User: What shape does this take?
Amino acid sequence: MYSFIKDTKNIIFFAILLLLQLGYTAGWAGVYSFLIAKSDANTLPYYFIFSALGSFFINIISAFFSDIFKKQTIIKFSQIIFIIFLIIEILVIENHNMFNKTTLFSTLLILSIIIVSIPSIFSIQLWALINENVEPSKASKIYPVLCSANIIASISGGMIANIIPKYFSNIYLIAIWIITIVISYILISLIKNNYDDEVGKKQLKTLINNFKDGAKHYFASSFLKYLSIVFISFWLVNTLTYFYYSQFLVIRYDNPEKIASFIGLFTMIIQFSALAMQFVISPIVIKKIGIINGLFYLPVSQVIGLSLIIIYPQFWAIILTEFLQDFIGMSIQANSINMSFNIISSKVRAKIRTLLEGVINPLGGVLAGISILIIQKTLPQSEFINYHIPLFGLIFAILWTLSVVKLKKHYIKEIKKSFKINKNNDRIFLKEFLTIEKNAKRKKQSSQNHI
Assistant: This one.
């Protein structure tokens, strides 16, 4: 913890991550609850598809600007645009009686898609900024603490989202979101990035050529291609499992209040478990197994969980799978993903992160939404609930696990490739990451010898 606290930047990063997630958790509850209250429940798969497509197109545009403008500039500009849309959302909610049912739903749907998509821009750029300012030798201690900010904020935001509507309008939740964005905007201004000078030298590059640089690096990298499969598979399995979990809740509980009560309790258990994991176990796991091996835990857990659901289609099986998905996803998986971006050349890192998290990632949500619609339209309801969703999820989870096997083989190659094209400071970072993997390999061999 001392290595985290002694660098002021780490504290500022933690505060920004906390604020962004707190605002998102509380504010999105206000936005989403009003949307589903004014819509038909059967439209949910369409929301998955269109919100993913919204994020896809917004981040395609963002990719043209990454690594040309300062990351702080992109974050702050996108936050200003985001606040404008949140204010529009508040105005629509306050004056919803002025719209007919169809127009109101269409307006809320468009606003919700935009509102859920734009945060990915400043989240991606913020983590790219973190990648450039956290030394790999300290990463195993610092990243778990930084990732814990999201968990703490989710717990706090969930409590706020639960309490505020009991006494005030949901608009207050959106207002809280605006306040957290404004404070984070101020904190971003306090960070001086070590790579700012390098960005200034790229002013003559056109936006088109900048995008091409990122695309060219992406298509030339086997590591990034397999990482893309990991990202898509994550959202596919995550969406399918969550939808199946939601269907089970509707069957098990007979009213919305009981569903909300269970979700609240279950979410609190997951978040507190993940928080304990981040502070106590994750740093040890990363040091012992290395960064890339951490990506195995989540897909393997989903293969096991979804297999159990198919064999025993009971409530405990889906609850266990959903728990493992969130518990491991918010701890070991999140740490490994964020740290793995450090081995990508700093010259294209922000562009690549935008392409993967903002463009490739949403494709998983689109494919999951389409898969759900196909199953809904072609299979009987009883079979849909008891069998086909987890079967689809299991197939994708197996594909996900196999892609991590392939990804591992190309991890060291990517480090060596980045080492050739990067400058001295980056080379120091890359050497440290290579050392982490070598030490983990030695510990594994030593453990096997003892056995």
